[in-house]
């Protein structure tokens, strides 16, 4: 009977031990273990699912206004050459920036000027 008891789920084992019943047969232990398992499962199903409580320790810290914006150092996908276009320009010794021969992108004179921020429009005509 101890082999059977050791094979039970832990919570059913505890219920069998806590009952303080001296079992005279394996059948009586099985019947008690079955009732205990059904009772425990009924209690478990009757409970509402636990909801995680919000924790204040996992709050997101406020952003540092003096922190450096690292995204400024990342190159975006703008003006990226496709693999085939890149291979064509390498094969033809062409500039990666403008596509013309005779120089490389570092020395390209056909660079677009830096973007100027838009000027605010005046709401009244100038006199």
Task: Describe the protein's architecture and organization.
By secondary structure, this protein is mainly α. The chain contains four helices and no strands. The longest helix is centred in the first third of the chain and has 21 residues, at 26-46. The protein is elongated. It starts with a helix and ends in a 36-residue tail after the last helix.
What brief labels describe this structure?
mainly alpha, 0% strand, 127 residues, 4 helices, elongated
Offer a quick outline of the entry:
Residues 95-108 form the CCHC-type domain. Keywords: Metal-binding, mRNA processing, Zinc, Zinc-finger. The chain has 127 residues and is an all-alpha fold.
> Which class do the helix and strand fractions yield?
mainly alpha
| Measured distance between first and last alpha carbons | 105 Å
Number of strands: 0
Mean pLDDT: 77
Q: Percent range for helical residues?
A: 25-40%
Beta strand %: under 5%
Biggest beta sheet attributes: none
SSE layout and pairings?
Blueprint lengths: L1 H5 L3 H9 L7 H21 L36 H9 L36
